[in-house]
Design goal:
The complex is a heterotrimer of chains A (about 240), B (about 350) and C (about 300). Chain A is an all-alpha fold and about 240 residues long. Chain A has twelve helices and no strands. Helices cover about 80% and strands about 0% of the residues of chain A. With about 300 residues, chain C is mainly α. Chain C has a single domain, classed as MetI-like fold (Orthogonal Bundle), CATH 1.10.3720. The longest helix of chain C has about 35 residues. The chains are: A mainly alpha (about 240), B alpha+beta (about 350), C mainly alpha (about 300).
Chain lengths: ~240, ~350, ~300
């Protein structure tokens, strides 16, 4: 099972270091394709776009998700039973449907295709990831800790800043990182909404793949793969820390 | 007028019909160890939460030193709580946990640390100041929770089943400790528990609660020897409750006709504790042993009394019990002064 | 008291409002406009003529006009939807066959090892979908690595030609969505009391009987959730058919994309997307109905 999951990815990584021109015929170790990719202006622009979109969308999504999770703390408020699943709504809609619907929506209300629209759309589908992470932490958080702070002369504001927020902080950070990866990985929605000036890394990579299977594509893919794995490892590490 | 006055407090949670507390009135004195005792769901924890300020009762008044405290939010009440789960802040060291309340009240750092050291000394945890709560055992965490509440020098300390998570030996030890700390600090303690043994061992006075109402308030021997109802008699320790009725001469008799040795003028429920009965050849009551349970120092018997349906439990030291076995005919003796007529 | 509670309730609802409104606006708005666009006339320049209502887009889905101007049934689009549903269904089946034993194996490990296994199971899932499918492109293409390996082992003398076929899509989808099947089944199994299996053995059940009568009913919720989680993105997938399916094996996602990119027929594209959305909703409703049924069955026999 695990062999099946990892072999294709490992092969991809190995062949990104291939010195030859062919993507799948090994001709010795080389970093030349990485060097070539890194020198491409398009690659750099796409990387910057991706990072900007992911940072903004993750920040907005995490902020909104944190506020929402705080709103659902304690005794259920009216309508909570419907609001909580509603926040996961973007997850159950097929991406392609979201993509075309948002495209039509943006064009009909006059949002130009580009970074702003892209960030808005990414924020929406990042909210569930951040929300689920933060809410899970909040659900296991002992609310007598906040009562204890109240009991020890901390008013609600100081309780929030000295107890609630420090305890929630790791989950907020983990939620941010997950939202960041999800945004970084998104392809279908970005494909429809990105204008020519806001090409993201996956779109750039898709363009390369369409032109042909080359070792340079292997290199770009590997870069994207390593970025995702790195961020997941950081999120997992934070999760471990908070459980201690 | 008492130090803490609870006057006709009733409470029901928003959106529910269930009356959690029903017209409860209590007076607690300064420097008193006061226990709220009852089975789960009797309203004792709700009462504690009202005193702490986490709940506002639907009706009634609570005054501390003559001042109405119901309008004071928890973060301004001179009352501190030891939580059942301890509720230590996991992200703060022991020292910062213990100084938390003083810091929030704006006490200077040096004074805070002095007070924290004294509080940690009091609970015998000096030297633990820089550890994290997760490094401590359950018993130690319990002491930290106590130190944290005491460091604020509250007028009233509330303890919500603080010993329930500890194992038997540690619980016994902490009972003594809590009593010592209460005496040394001179603080009033309101202690909530469902463990009657614990309540009897520690309290100056006990309030027995049932379904949101007070059943009886009194010192431990009042509660144990002179329960005011069947419920109290059965909840506190083991008891035999016998139906008795007066005969023509005003003597209370069992249905079988045997006189108990006390007088009365109406049918009554008469309580006698198992340890007040002993097996003796000249006993007033007679019956047959139907069950026998050996538990180390003591042995318990069930004896079906002759001439009636009543079965009583008796407890004997195991040496006294030697040689008695199932089915034996025995006679039971007691001192009539140990009988108690439970209010009808 | 009650007013204080409702003020606090309103303040907390206020905290949740921005997220709710954001999703309502950026998901609800697009969905409504999409339905609207699917019901109006297409403009010659590629846009739409607002206000000219027509069901042409839905007619186009089922019928076509032949040269004589007669309307005849056109099964081309239906065939693509059917193929997509079959591929998604096959993916569900394949991930279930591989995923169920995997979930069971993980659930029976020591808790520490479990967490590690689950982590490494979900790790590839966070890797970009394009990258994961591209890796299979390297393996499957003519004279690619799979062909090279097969020829080296003398299993075949010529390229297998798997790429650009339904088989390639099925392989890609199964690989992409396997974790989505394993995780919910594992979550259900983690709560499952395995001593029940021992009890079943003790009562004389065979391994197969214990599996079918004790374990499967116990984790049914997880299996249903996993099937749905695999089916939805499988049905609407775009990346896998583009990379591994080529031009011959279209799926719904590619068909929709074409209406917006090449054909510039928005109403038809919106109608296609709406039909897809309805299929997904139907699957979700089916799951809800199944859950309700099993819950009722549980409550009726105490």
């Amino acid at each position: 099972m695990y062999v099946y999951l990892y072999i294709p990815l490992l092969i991809l990584i190995v062949f990104s270091f291939n010195g030859g021109r062919m993507a799948t015929i090994w001709e010795g170790f080389s970093l030349r394709w990485y060097a070539e990719v890194m020198q491409s202006d398009q690659f750099r622009a796409a990387t910057v776009n991706s990072l900007v979109v992911a940072s903004c969308a993750a920040f907005l999504a995490t902020t909104l998700a944190t506020l929402a999770a705080l709103g659902f703390r304690g005794r259920p408020i009216r309508g909570q039973g419907m609001m909580v699943p509603f926040l996961s709504f973007p997850l159950v809609i097929p991406e392609i449907v979201t993509a075309v619907a948002t495209l039509i929506f943006f064009i009909s209300i006059g949002v130009p295709l580009g970074m702003v629209g892209l960030i808005a759309a990414h924020t929406v589908f990042c909210i569930p990831f951040a929300f689920i992470t933060i809410k899970a932490r909040m659900d296991v958080m002992d609310d007598t800790l906040e009562q204890a702070a109240n009991d020890l002369y901390a008013d609600p504001r100081r309780t929030f800043f000295s107890v609630t927020l420090p305890l929630l902080w790791p989950a907020i950070l983990a939620g941010f990182i997950l939202a960041f990866i999800v945004s970084l990985d998104d392809f279908v929605i970005s494909l429809f909404l990105a204008g020519p000036s806001s090409t993201t890394l996956p779109i750039y990579m898709f363009g390369m793949m369409r032109l042909g299977v080359t070792p340079a594509v292997n290199a770009v893919s590997t870069i994207l793969l390593v970025m995702s794995v790195l961020f997941v490892l950081i999120a997992a590490w934070i999760n471990r820390m908070q459980r201690k | 007028m008492g130090f803490l006055e609870v006057e006709a407090v009733s409470h029901q949670y928003a959106g529910t019909d269930a009356q959690v507390l029903n017209e409860v009135s209590l007076t607690i004195q300064e420097n008193e160890f006061f226990t709220l005792l009852g089975p789960s769901g009797c309203g004792k924890t709700t009462m504690l939460r009202i005193l702490a300020g986490f709940e506002v009762p639907s009706r009634g008044r609570v005054t501390l030193d003559g001042q109405d405290i119901l309008r004071i939010p928890p973060w301004r009440r001179p009352v501190n709580t030891v939580f059942q789960s301890y509720a230590l802040f996991p992200h703060l060291t022991i020292l910062r946990n213990v100084t938390f309340g003083l810091k929030m009240r704006g006490v200077a750092k040096a004074d805070r640390h002095g007070a924290a050291r004294r509080a940690l000394d009091l609970v015998r945890l000096d030297g633990f100041a820089d550890r994290m709560p997760s490094d401590l055992s359950g018993g130690q965490q319990q002491r930290v929770a106590l130190a944290r509440a005491l460091a604020c020098q509250p007028r009233l300390l509330l303890l919500d089943e603080p010993l329930s998570a500890l194992d038997y030996k540690l619980r016994k030890e902490m009972q003594g400790e809590l009593k010592r700390i209460q005496r040394e600090t001179g603080t009033s303690f309101v202690f909530v528990t469902h463990d009657q043994e614990e309540a009897l061992a520690m309290s100056d006075r006990i309030a027995v609660m049932r379904q949101g109402t007070l059943e009886q308030v009194g010192n431990p021997s009042d509660i144990y020897d002179r329960p005011s109802s069947d419920f109290v008699a059965e909840f506190i320790g083991d008891s035999n409750l016998l139906n008795a009725a007066p005969d023509s001469q005003g003597r209370l008799c069992l249905p079988g006709g045997r006189a108990l040795g006390i007088r009365g003028d109406a049918p009554a429920r008469v309580m006698i504790r198992p340890e007040a009965l002993r097996i003796a050849p000249d006993g007033n009551l007679s019956g047959q042993v139907t069950d026998l349970v050996y538990s180390g120092a003591a042995t318990r018997f069930l004896v079906a009394l002759d001439g009636g349906e009543e079965t009583v439990q008796i407890q004997q030291t195991s040496t006294e019990a030697a040689g008695i076995s199932m089915g034996d005919k025995v006679c039971l003796a007691y001192d009539p002064q140990q009988l108690w007529v439970v209010a009808p | 008291m009650s007013t204080a509670a409702s003020v606090a309730g309103r303040r907390r609802a206020g905290l949740a409002a921005p997220a709710i409104l954001c999703i309502a606006f950026f998901m609800g708005g697009p969905m409504c406009i999409m339905v609207f666009v699917s019901l109006v006339e297409r403009a010659p320049d590629g846009g739409v003529i607002w206000g000219n209502f027509t069901t042409d887009a839905y007619k186009q889905f089922l019928f076509e006009e032949n040269l004589l101007g007669e309307t005849t049934l056109n099964a081309d689009y239906l065939r693509i939807y059917l193929r997509s549903a079959l591929l998604a269904g096959f993916t569900v089946l394949a991930t279930l066959i591989v995923g169920f034993p995997t979930a069971m194996y993980i659930a029976m490990q020591h808790p520490r090892r479990r967490a590690l296994l689950i982590f490494f199971l979900s790790l590839p899932f966070w890797v970009n979908l394009l990258v994961r499918n591209y890796a299979w492109l390297l393996l499957l293409r003519a004279n690619g690595l799979l062909d090279q390996a097969a020829m080296a082992l003398r299993l075949t003398s010529e390229p297998l030609n798997i790429l650009y076929s339904n088989t390639a899509i099925a392989i890609g989808l199964t690989y992409s969505f396997l974790p989505l099947m394993v995780l919910p089944i594992y979550a259900a199994m983690e709560k499952f009391d395995f001593s029940l299996v021992e009890a079943a053995f003790d009562l004389g059940a065979s391994r197969w009987q214990a599996l079918m009568h004790v374990i499967v009913p116990g984790v049914k919720g997880g299996i249903v959730a996993g099937c749905l989680l695999v089916f939805i993105p499988g049905l609407g997938s775009y990346v896998t058919p583009v990379l591994l399916g080529g031009s011959k094996s279209l799926m719904i996602g590619n068909l929709i994309e074409t209406q917006f990119a090449a054909a510039r027929n928005w109403p038809f594209g919106a109608a296609l997307a709406f039909v897809l959305l309805m299929m997904v909703m139907a699957a979700a409703l089916l799951r809800a109905a199944l859950l309700r049924k099993s819950r009722r069955a549980k409550s009726s026999n105490p």
